[in-house]
Design a protein that fits this description.
It is a single chain. By secondary structure, this protein is mainly beta. The protein has a domain of 37 residues. Strands 1-2-3 form a three-stranded mixed beta sheet, with no helix packed on it. Strands 4-5 form a two-stranded antiparallel sheet. The protein is elongated, with a radius of gyration of 18 Å.
């Protein structure tokens, strides 16, 4: 169900009542999903993005071609702690 359509802003808000959204093709200015967003193919985009909450990734994650995995560390962060003795990153 399309809950809101703003053609001038190229924005579509979709409410699928907990069921999967399928067959979405084309270019949207913004897509608001209230519930679970699942994709079965690649996802490519440019520009800024923001996520409020936690993100779980099954598989690999890369940033500008560099793998970001479970062994990713920032210098100055003490192993096993949430605090840092180094500069703010």
């Amino acid at each position: 169900t399309v809950a809101a359509l703003d053609a001038a802003a190229a924005r579509v808000t979709v409410d699928v009542g907990g069921r999967p959204l399928t067959g979405c093709r084309g270019s949207l200015g913004a897509l608001t999903v209230q519930g679970l967003l699942t994709w079965q193919a690649g996802m490519i985009g440019t520009g800024d993005a923001a996520i409020a909450g936690n993100v779980a990734v099954a598989g690999g994650l890369s940033n500008n071609g560099t793998n970001v995995g479970a062994c990713h560390r920032h210098s100055g962060v003490e192993q096993g702690k949430d605090t840092t003795s180094g500069p703010a990153l």
